[in-house]
Amino acid sequence: MLRNDKRSTVCVSSQVGCPLDCLFCATGKMGFQRNLTHWEILEQVLLFARYLKKQRISNIVFMGMGEPFLNYDNVMEAIKTINDADCFNVGARKISISTAGIFSGIEKLSKEDIQINLSISLHAPNNQLRDRIMPINKKYPLSRVLDKADDYVKKTNRKVMLEYLMIKGLNDSLKEAEELYRLIKNRPLYMVNLIRYNPTGGFKGSDTKTVKAFKDYLEKKGIFATQRYEFGKDIKGACGQLIAGGENK
Ligand code: SF4
């Protein structure tokens, strides 16, 4: 959970483990155990709502363990309750689902009658690198994921957030920034969210100067880019770090 005076953002899991096995991800190393029921997803939200007491949950992000679109029905069922004014009353535009690019999920979301946000976990600007760090790219390659996201934008006129983990020496050079720019320069409703990687296993996060240079490059080219500060690092609960019942190394 990320909390400040104005916002309390809760990061929710949709599965126990994850079948997608991204190279940099502690959750992926656990393998896939099972989908969470919609009640189990809601229990996570309820836990934080109780913890926060008077301060309401302002944002929900499906960026914890698992690929939400591989558990689509339970995720959407939970979102209806999260959004319900008589339950958690979190606005639809304050709820985000982050996917590695599962086509069927992007298509289904574009037909839903609820204006929640779509994020794509991109993490690489070309197929060669994305194949290496996200094996799912072999099934759902980068350009086709963005084609699906374009269809989503056409149908919904909503923005798409591209999540980009900054991993030292792997995907964080200005060459990659330029490739990323070329991918989205004609896609005005796409934004980039840079997230400094929290070290797990063999990778390190990019240093501050590198993240700034990457972001500055995109901004100078007219791309809307934000930087999310890592949260949950101390409890090994940040992006790519969630692991059940064990220590991350
Ligand atoms: S980064 Fe996300 S999609 Fe990839 S293995 Fe981890 S939880 Fe699954």
Report on this structure.
By secondary structure, the protein is an alpha/beta fold. It has a single domain (2-235), classed as TIM Barrel (Alpha-Beta Barrel). Helices cover 35% and strands 18% of the residues. The chain has helices at residues 26-29, 38-52, 72-83, 103-111, 127-133, 142-156, 174-184, 208-220, and strands at 2-3, 8-11, 15-17, 32-35, 59-62, 95-99, 117-121, 160-166, 190-196, 225-228. The strands form 2 sheets. The protein has an 8-stranded mixed beta sheet, with helices on one face. β1 (2-3) and β2 form a beta hairpin. α2 runs parallel beside α3 (72-83), α4 packs parallel to α6 and α7 packs parallel to α8. Iron/sulfur cluster (SF4) binds at residues 18, 20-22, 25, 27-28, 65-67, 100, 240.
Brief summary:
The protein is an alpha/beta fold.
Strand count, sense and barrel status of the largest sheet are: 8 strands, mixed
Give the fraction of residues assigned to helices. Answer: 25-40%
What is the level 1 CATH name? Alpha Beta
Give a list of the ligands.
Answer: iron/sulfur cluster
CATH architecture: Alpha-Beta Barrel
Beta strand count: 10
Query: How much β-strand is present in the residues?
Result: 15-25%
Describe the global form: globular
The number of helical elements comes to 8
Mean pLDDT: 90
Indicate the radius of gyration in whole angstroms: 17 Å
Which spans have pLDDT < 50 for at least 5 consecutive residues? 231-238, 245-249
Strand order of the largest sheet: 1-2-5-6-7-8-9-10
Instruction: Determine the structural class based on helices, strands and strand pairing.
Output: alpha/beta
From the N-terminal CA to the C-terminal CA, the straight-line distance is 22 Å
The tally of domains stands at: 1
CATH topology: TIM Barrel
CATH homology superfamily: Aldolase class I
| N to C succession of SSEs | EEEHEHEHEHEHHEHEHE
